[in-house]
Amino acid sequence: xxxxxxxxxxxxxxxxxxxxxxxxxxxxxxxxxxxxxxxxxxxxxxxxxxxxxxxxxxxxxxxxxxxxxxxxxxxxxxxxxxxxxxxxxxxxxxxxxxxxxxxxxxxxxxxxxxxxxxxxxxxxxxxxxxxxxxxxxxxxxxxxxxxxxx
Length: 150
Known about the structure:
Layout: E1 4-5, E2 40-43, H1 47-57, E3 61-62, E4 69-72, E5 75-80, E6 96-99, H2 103-112, E7 122-123, E8 127-133, E9 139-145
Parallel strand pairs: 1-7, 2-5, 6-9
Antiparallel strand pairs: 3-4, 4-5, 7-8, 8-9
């Protein structure tokens, strides 16, 4: 399968000429020191189904203390039901880009497990990206940068 070459507009980004810079934000006066993100929340309507997908299908490492959390490298991700906070469920459209060594091979493996991809693999001339969603509709991507940093 040949990867499609993407333009910024084809993947939902504005063209470079239409990007604008906002004014710099003034430095905070508080002495808050944020050293890391403790976890990233992923909304779900069904925690058991989400665990089955992220741990069972994607093969991510489940937290040893809390079933509804999993790890990618040193970053923790946790499932939460928005109704717990009095909110209505809405899938996240913020793409969680999952690094793989070979996008085509990882995509084929996931397709064999029943994961549907919405379009052809994208080749940006810098990286390969394959977009899909979890069972709740949260945006995910298989990603591999192949162009060296200059």
